[in-house]
Amino acid sequence: MRTFADLVARAVRLAGRGRAVLGLAGAPGAGKSTLAQALVSAVPGAQHVPMDGFHLADVELERLGRRGRKGAPDTFDAAGYAALLARLRAQPQEPGAAVVYAPAFDREIEQPVAGSIPVFGDTRLVVTEGNYLLLSDGGWGAVRPLLDEVWFVDVPGGARTERLVGRHRRFGKPREAALAWVRDVDGANAELVDAARDSADLVVPGDLRLQRGPAR
Ligand SMILES: Nc1ncnc2c1ncn2[C@@H]1O[C@H](COP(=O)(O)OP(=O)(O)OP(=O)(O)O)[C@@H](O)[C@H]1O
Ligand SMILES: [Mg+2]
């Protein structure tokens, strides 16, 4: 698996099963969302459903006293994510079947937004992605059995730090705050994610040259 075309071919084979769910795991900033979007553009009948939509809202993180480490495994609704994946697997596979709605994460407001992503009955491949697909603790263990394959998106720590600081800054965080967040919060989460790397079906480089296929 050296090129994006190889990954597309593998995803097309998965989509040939009728309904498959492909997971992309990896540390913060590894390039999971970017790869998911590129795959969905290149594979007919594919849709992107991010784990990020299951971030707990800030109001609930305040109640739990976890707002300061937003992004950690226990700041997501892991059971809700697993329940959605189970619904997606059980969704009848025909045009006109009832839509299953997934939440998205809005980076402008840094909040989840319910009902954002309609998953259609004739979708053949769901590409889901997030940090904690391969974790076994804290309710995350229910996720892996609901995924047909998991690919681990791998990027060396230094490159990932630069990317993350750049993205935080684009969304308005001052440089010092962005650096501190990436070091203290994202860094700890990245260690947890990296520990599960060996249980993936495939490891893909996060700096792959991605070609965009025809938009659906
Ligand atoms: N293949 C790539 N080549 C070059 N840059 C990339 C590539 N993939 C992603 N990037 C850049 O890296 C940054 C992080 O990418 P992305 O948002 O896809 O990561 P992520 O794994 O989804 O992160 P998070 O866990 O925080 O959601 C983005 O600024 C993106 O433009
Ligand atoms: Mg992402």
Helix/strand/pairing category: alpha/beta
- List cofactors, ions and other ligands: adenosine-5'-triphosphate, magnesium ion
Globular, elongated, flat, extended or rod-shaped: what is the shape?
A: globular
SSE order, one letter for each helix or strand: HEHEHHEEEEHHE
Quick summary of this structure?
The protein has 216 residues and is α/β, with parallel strands linked by helices. It has six helices and seven strands.
List the helices and strands and how they pair.
Layout: H1 4-15, E1 20-25, H2 32-42, E2 46-50, H3 58-64, H4 78-90, E3 100-106, E4 111-119, E5 125-130, E6 149-154, H5 157-170, H6 175-195, E7 202-205
Parallel strand pairs: 1-5, 1-6, 2-5, 6-7
Antiparallel strand pairs: 3-4
Adenosine-5'-triphosphate is lined by residues 26, 28-34, 131, 163, 166-167, 206-208, 210.
Descriptive overview:
This protein has one domain (4-203): Rossmann fold (3-Layer(aba) Sandwich), CATH 3.40.50.300. Helices cover 36% and strands 20% of the residues. The chain contains six helices and seven strands, in the order αβαβααββββααβ. The protein has helices at 4-15, 32-42, 58-64, 78-90, 157-170, 175-195; strands at 20-25, 46-50, 100-106, 111-119, 125-130, 149-154, 202-205. The chain has a five-stranded parallel beta sheet with strand order 2-5-1-6-7. A two-stranded antiparallel ribbon has the order 3-4. Strand 3 (100-106) and strand 4 (111-119) form a beta hairpin. Helix 5 crosses helix 6. The protein starts with a helix and ends in an 11-residue tail after the last strand. The model has no long low-confidence stretch (mean pLDDT 93). Magnesium ion is lined by residues 32-33, 52.
